[in-house]
Amino acid sequence: MLFEPLNINDDVQVKNRLVFPPITTGFAAETGIVSEKMCTFYEEKAKSGLGMVIVEAAATSPGGKLTLRSPGIWDESFVAGLSRVSMLIKNQGAVPVLQLAHAGFRSADGEIRPVGPSPISLKKNAARPYELSKEEIKEIIAGFVRGAERAYKAGFAGIELHCAHFYLLSSFLSSVTNRRNDEYGGNVEGKSRIIREIIQEVKGKVDQNFILGCRINGSELAEEGINLHEAVDISRELERSGADMVHVSAYDIYVEALKRFVRVPALAVPRKDDQPGTFVPYAEKVRQNVNIPVISVGKINRGDLAEEIVSQGKSDLVAIGRPLIADPQFINKMINHEPVQECKYCLFCLKAIRKGEIKCKVNPAVV
């Protein structure tokens, strides 16, 4: 089943169930403009035989960049470079999707005061973020809608809203960081309102068959954090609002060394000691409760595991990220039962991104 096609909506079909997730590369220029290296990277990923490539988070405002070298989409100057990326992906037969994000209190821009739904940060000793007013929330929504219109103009088949990992939209969804008592807080309906309003406005601006996906946390390592039951409720709300697919990640990989520094001592990145398919049970539960395609992610590092996930209905698509960084021919080798250069899940790539751009101990060239 892994190589059977799937309709995302009435107009868009992926040739197989394999997805490249929106891994941050640091390959864009500090201005947010797409670089030649970034183009080459995504062309290589599309060449590997994927059905869908989700391009890393493009910031909807200058203060919303996830890293100093995240791509931007806050004005028209970014459309030309992103158009080239989408074209290179399409030319290889994959469906190009662009993730849109605002980093919120995790912004890479240290010159601005970070923002959030409430004045709560994950870092214990960090400055408290500025609580967005309802008028400012409307401006955030407008930024995402304009970003979606530019992604459409740039030739992408759709967008994915980054509603995971405690970036801005994620921080609205989680009770860890959202303590509002207005219509943007409280129950799941209120906490998801900002995302639902983005979805509805985007659907009114672009072609109805433009894919609109959302990446969410299926679980958060905190007493007040999203649990699986709430993740299902969130997914249902997003589906009712017009979302075309849900991508289920998590923020619950416990890291003892982080305990001193953050309120949620966890990562969204499985390590070498974490079991394969780390977050698949969360995707499976969501899949049982929605009628739109679900993407699973998290250390899906073997072909038989990927096939099992799809054939047993645990998710409709599987995202394979770091194995394709370690070995760009991972999929072809998987098909032909050839040995691969295995990702060590050592987090070297994550540490490298924090210093500039992605690197890999197994595949030093990366591109």
CATH level 1 class label:
Alpha Beta
Classify the helix fraction into a percent range: 25-40%
Task: Tell me, briefly, the overall form.
Answer: globular
CATH fold field value: TIM Barrel
Please state the average pLDDT score. 96
How many strands, which pairing sense, and closed or not: the largest β-sheet?
8 strands, parallel, barrel
Question: What is the number of independent domains?
Answer: 1
What is the topology, as strand order, of the major beta sheet? 3-4-5-8-9-10-13-14
Q: How many angstroms does the end-to-end distance come to?
A: 30 Å
Structural class: alpha/beta
**What's the helix count?**
12
- Topology, number of strands: 14
Assigned CATH architecture: Alpha-Beta Barrel
Show unreliable segments.
Answer: none
| Rg (CA only) | 19 Å
Q: What is the topology?
A:
Elements (H helix, E strand, L loop, with lengths): L5 E2 L5 E2 L3 E3 L15 H12 L4 E8 L19 H13 L3 E7 L13 E2 L13 E2 L2 H20 L4 E6 L4 H6 L14 H4 L1 H11 L7 E10 L7 H14 L3 E7 L1 E2 L11 E2 L12 H8 L6 E3 L6 H9 L5 E3 L2 H5 L3 H6 L12 H8 L12
Parallel strand pairs: 3-4, 3-14, 4-5, 5-8, 6-7, 8-9, 9-10, 10-13, 13-14
Antiparallel strand pairs: 1-2, 11-12
Structural commentary:
This protein is an alpha/beta fold. The chain has one domain: TIM Barrel (Alpha-Beta Barrel), CATH 3.20.20.70. It has twelve helices and 14 strands. Strands 3-4-5-8-9-10-13-14 form an eight-stranded parallel barrel, surrounded by seven helices. Strands 1-2 form a two-stranded antiparallel sheet. Helix 7 links the parallel strand 9 (211-220) and strand 10 (245-251). The mean pLDDT is 96.
